[in-house]
Inverse folding.
C-alpha cells in the first residue's frame, strides 16, 4: 500500500482518498507526485542545487539569538567553514550572510597549458570563466615532489538551507542524505583557538585518558592494546548515545558529529578536512591534562573510525595551520625527528584507509609566501619565504603513494 505524505504526517493512501482534502492541499499532492515521478538522476540533480556547495561544511556549536535583548543560545548547527562565526559578532547577533562573498581555495596539478606557462617563466596564473568568475592560480613548488597550483576565487555564499526537503518524504530523505553527506566536504577543527568559538571541540589529555577503552584504538588502562573486536565494539558505541560515557567521544568534533547524525548517514561521507596541530606532550606536560591533543594522537583514532564507518571515503585533507608557514609546536625533549614522526602519522592514515584516492597536505586558506602572492600577515616580512609544506617534508611521499595506489586499483578493476 502506498503512502501519501502531507505536512510530515503519514496516512494510508486509501484513507487519503476518502478524506476531504482542500483544493490547496490537492495541488500540493499533485505537485509532490510529479516531483517524485522524476527519474532518480534528475531528482539528485535538483537536490545538488539545494544541498551542495563549493564551500566546506563545518558542524559544531554556534551562538544564536533573535534580538539584541535576548540572551544567546548555543546550538549545534552547520556553518560554512569559510564563513565561520567569530568570537564576537556585531551586537552578539548571528552573522548575516546575505549578499556576502567568500574566498575558496583548492589545489590541483598543473594542466598542460599551465605547465607551458610555468616553463615560460610565469609565476602567477589567472583565468576568467565564461560566467565572468576570476580564478587566480599560484605556483607552489614542492621541490622533488613537483609543482601544484593553488587556486583562489570568490563565490557568493548564502545560509545553509534546503535541509527541510529531506523531511518531506522517505524517497527524498534517502536520496538527499546521500547527496548531502556524500558530495560535500566536512571540516573538523581540533585547534580550539580564536576566532573559533567552539571550546566544546577542544580535546585535552583529560578527555583522552577518561575511559580509554571506549576510544577506538587507545591503550587500555593496563597498557594493553585493544583487539580488532574491541575496536569495532568501541566504534559501534559511538552511535549509541545512551551507552556512550567517554568524554572524548562527546567532545571531539568528528566523533560528536558522527554520534549526532547516526551511522547510516555517516557511511555516506566521502570527503573530510581535519585541521589541527602537531603537539607532542611528553614528560611533565602529560600531568597537566589541559593541553590540546595533537594530530599525531587523533589521526590513529580517526583512521579506525573512517575505515570502518565511511567505506566510501576517498579524500582526506590534513591541515596544521592557517598562517602560510610552518606552525609545529615542538614540546618535549630536543633532538626528536619531527619530520619522521609526522611522516609516520600520515603513513598510518594512508595504510589504514586502503580505498583513499586523494590525500592533501595543507588546505591553503592563505596562499603561502613565495607563490607569487604576499599573504599580508602580521610580521610576515620577518619570516623567511618558507612553504607551509616544509613541515610535511618526508610526509609528501604519501601524497604520491596514494595517487599511484589509486591508479593501480583503477587499472586492475578495468
Amino acid at each position: 500500500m502506498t503512502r501519501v505524505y502531507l505536512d510530515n504526517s503519514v496516512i494510508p493512501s486509501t484513507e487519503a482518498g476518502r478524506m476531504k482534502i482542500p483544493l490547496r492541499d490537492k495541488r500540493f499532492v499533485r505537485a509532490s507526485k510529479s516531483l517524485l515521478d522524476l527519474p532518480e538522476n534528475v531528482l539528485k540533480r535538483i537536490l545538488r542545487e539545494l544541498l551542495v556547495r563549493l564551500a566546506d561544511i563545518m558542524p559544531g556549536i554556534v551562538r544564536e539569538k533573535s534580538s539584541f535583548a535576548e540572551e544567546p543560545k548555543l546550538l549545534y548547527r552547520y556553518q560554512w567553514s569559510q564563513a565561520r562565526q567569530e568570537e564576537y559578532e556585531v551586537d552578539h547577533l548571528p552573522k548575516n550572510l546575505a549578499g556576502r562573498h567568500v574566498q575558496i581555495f583548492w589545489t590541483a596539478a598543473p594542466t598542460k597549458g599551465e605547465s607551458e606557462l610555468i616553463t615560460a617563466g610565469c609565476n602567477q596564473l589567472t583565468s576568467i570563466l565564461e560566467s565572468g568568475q576570476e580564478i587566480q592560480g599560484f605556483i607552489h613548488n614542492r621541490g622533488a615532489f613537483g609543482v601544484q597550483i593553488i587556486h583562489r576565487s570568490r563565490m557568493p555564499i548564502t545560509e545553509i538551507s534546503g535541509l527541510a526537503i529531506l523531511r518531506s518524504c522517505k524517497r527524498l530523505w534517502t536520496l538527499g542524505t546521500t547527496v548531502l553527506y556524500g558530495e560535500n566536504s566536512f571540516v573538523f577543527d581540533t585547534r580550539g583557538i580564536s576566532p573559533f568559538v567552539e571550546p566544546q571541540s577542544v580535546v585535552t589529555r583529560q578527555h583522552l585518558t577518561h575511559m580509554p577503552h571506549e576510544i577506538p584504538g587507545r591503550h587500555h588502562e593496563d597498557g594493553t592494546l585493544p583487539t580488532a573486536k574491541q575496536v569495532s565494539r568501541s566504534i559501534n558505541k559511538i552511535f549509541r548515545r545512551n551507552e556512550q560515557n567517554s568524554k572524548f567521544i562527546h567532545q571531539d568534533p568528528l566523533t560528536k558529529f558522527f554520534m549526532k547524525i547516526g551511522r547510516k548517514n555517516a557511511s555516506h561521507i566521502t570527503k573530510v578536512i581535519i585541521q589541527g596541530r602537531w603537539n607532542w606532550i611528553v614528560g611533565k606536560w602529560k600531568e597537566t591534562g589541559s593541553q590540546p591533543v595533537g594530530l599525531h594522537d587523533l589521526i590513529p583514532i580517526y583512521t579506525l573510525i573512517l575505515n570502518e564507518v565511511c567505506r566510501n571515503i576517498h579524500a582526506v585533507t590534513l591541515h596544521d595551520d592557517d598562517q602560510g608557514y610552518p606552525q609545529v609546536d615542538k614540546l618535549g625533549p630536543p633532538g626528536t625527528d619531527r619530520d619522521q614522526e609526522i611522516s609516520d602519522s600520515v603513513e598510518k592514515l594512508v595504510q589504514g584507509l586502503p580505498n583513499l584516492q586523494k590525500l592533501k597536505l595543507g588546505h591553503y586558506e592563505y596562499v603561502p609566501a613565495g607563490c607569487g602572492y604576499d599573504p599580508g600577515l602580521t610580521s610576515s616580512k620577518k619570516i623567511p619565504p618558507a612553504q607551509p609544506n616544509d613541515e610535511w617534508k618526508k610526509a609528501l611521499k604519501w601524497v604520491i603513494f596514494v595517487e599511484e595506489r589509486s591508479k593501480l586499483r583503477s587499472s586492475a578493476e578495468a
Observations:
- Confidence is low (pLDDT under 50) at residues 1-19, 323-327, 372-389.
- The chain has two domains: 61-157, 184-413.
- Residues 35 and 42 are 10 Å apart (CA to CA).
